[in-house]
Specification:
- This protein is mainly alpha-helical.
- The protein has eleven helices and two strands, in the order H-H-H-H-H-E-E-H-H-H-H-H-H.
- Strands 1-2 form a two-stranded antiparallel ribbon.
- Strand 1 and strand 2 form a beta hairpin.
- It is globular.
- The termini are far apart.
Length: about 210
Amino acid sequence: MQTPENVEVSATRKCSWNKGKMRGSKPPLQTKHVWAIRTKLQVDGKIRELAMFNLAIDSKLRGCDLVRIRVEDVAPHGLAIDRAVVRQRKTGHPVKFELTEHTREAVDAHIRASGLRPGQFLFSSRKDRSRPISTRQYARLLAGWIASVGLDPTFFGTHSLRRTKATLIYRRTGNLRAVQLLLGHTKIESTVRYLGIEVDDALAIAEQVDV
């Protein structure tokens, strides 16, 4: 028979490592937060991190794919291109994405400042330039960006950046198929779950269409 003390000890031992931490899907950033982080990185002169942040927003890539981008993927001739293609590690399928002007400028500045060449990782490890930074390090950098503009890092994660532009595109256009292609999902049901689309969202879009 367990005493109250034993029950309390047992519960403590079974407590999960992430008790008290937010679990589940992380929300996307709002546009004002994107610009706040972007401005903070510019003011602080963090060229590499600005390129990483901007590219994460535009590419909509998973963290494991973002950190493994090589120079030639986005700047095959020395300067960042308008559109790029990266093969996803999870699915093995290529996914295309756009690089907006401010992202191209940030990537070009990073390549110049770091003296990068084709064949090298765009965001290499500080200790070993033949290896990319780890997804753990990317997550730590993101936490710092989030905190720097007064947000709680526990509410956001690397998927927040992946979701940010995709969610905005969906809200503005209602084009779920386009978002599916941009995220590289093989099934549209995955996109629905990923964006957290509810019946009310679908009805709101339907109400805008008059037959």
